[in-house]
Amino acid sequence: MIFQKMLTTEKDTEVTEVTEKKNNNKGITSVSSVSSVVIFLMSALVWIAASASAQERPTVGPERPFQLAPRVERTLPNGLRVIVARQDAVPKVSITLTVLSGYSSDPADLTGLANFTADAIQEGTKTRTSREIRRDVFGMGGSLSSNVSQDFSSLSARSLAEFSPRLIELLADVVMNPVLPADEIAILKQQRMQNAAQSKSSPQFLANREFRRALFGNHPYARTSETEESIQAITRDKLVAFHRDHYRPNNAFVIIVGAVEPNAAIAAVEKAFGAWTKGEVPKPAFAAPPAPSATTGRHVYFIQRPNSIQSSIAMGNLVVKRSDPRWYELALGNSMFGGAFNSRIVRNIREEKGYTYSPGSTLTGFADAGFYRFTADVRNEVTGATLTEVFKEIDKFRADGSEPDELQGSKSYLRGLFPVQTATQAGLAATLNNVYVFDLPKDYTETYRAKIASVTAAQVKGAASTLLGSENSVIAIVGDWAKVKDQLGAFTNITFLDLDGKPIAPPAQ
Q1: CA diameter of the chain
Q2: 329 or 7: which carries more pLDDT confidence?
Q3: Is residue 53 scored above 70 in pLDDT?
Q4: C-alpha 37: how far from its chain's center?
Q5: Is residue 141 part of a domain?
Q6: What is the pTM assigned to this prediction?
Q7: Is 341 buried (19+), middle (13-18) or exposed (0-12) by CB count in 10 A?
Q8: 139 in helix, strand or coil?
Q9: Segments forming the whole domain that contains residue 398
């Protein structure tokens, strides 16, 4: 009924506009009668909405059973692991091939080499040009894309399920037989140079980049994207070497989710990838990542962006690696603090203070470390006040822990979100990809909701101490120093940087 009223109001508004035009053509300026009707209907709509909100909310129904289809897993003679989950709600299939090499496998002066390689191998094989690859994929009603993170590189192919064997064969051809044509590499390089230059115009990108660099220092987890310098240094020979060294079956696995018969899918993988030869994969050599307690004091990294009308903030600290058993309580703690729309931070600086539209916090885990990060874009005049409120919420959470209803609500939220995340073939494939990249328990998908439900209030309070740093925090701010400096007097440890991340003298007062 409310929706119908809204439609009626929209129609009346259109009538008003038309009437105004007609009357203006006749030299008549009064449309009060029609406007009165619109005002009346709008008032009625507000009254209906208020009455509906005043009514008692319906109770949440009982939780429904949730069961994923059992997985079939097999390791081929060349070391390639194959994992198949049958999900036939729609007649499609999602195939992900992941190699356990990503940004952390890049040489220090060639950040982006893994990412560049994952794109370049799609530009032609010994039997297919890049155009033919795309034509074949589109002909199967599908897509082919790549995703590169700190610990892995993935190629994802999707199509109608009836074309599964053909899609597997095409993916194998791309992975095993790329020719890395020089002309295509030149085009990719130009595109990446443009993207790198454009990214510097994004305050959010700059804040995250400097936050990660400050947090991880010389560790490869500090790398977020390639730079113009590293792109220039990447050559075809380096791409060939990276592919040769890292794209090996004993450094990879294949996940297939869709309307397929598992044994038939595994047979198709073995046929397509059976000739792929294993080899020694170089492991990156670098110092261990900083410990979660490594951040000491509140250190501000201020990226000077003259004439900025707002400040982009990224603040946080190190946490445990993704496979740590405490991840469940950390996830709950983050959900209550800033990871959900009804979280403490959102209620405080969005709903109550009106400082920003979309504040929030994220929890990110890698193979050897993790981090928590609060982000917000706020008006210049409330930059300092935002940080004050965030630290206030952190201190309160660390001191008092969670409220019983709050904890139960967050458990229900995460438990309810998990089936939604794994309901699609791509979502389930992404979840399983994390299981095998980060060596999580094989029953992770089956036990996740039960483990979330078993977290205690004491564990959440302990997680708040681990997750949220108050006195010890990395704070990256992109903005105009002249417009916010008077609000940041409480911070004595400030490093000033330009848009390239290079240290500069304090901006002129």
Answers
A1: 87
A2: 329
A3: no
A4: 47
A5: yes
A6: 0.84
A7: exposed
A8: helix
A9: 298-497
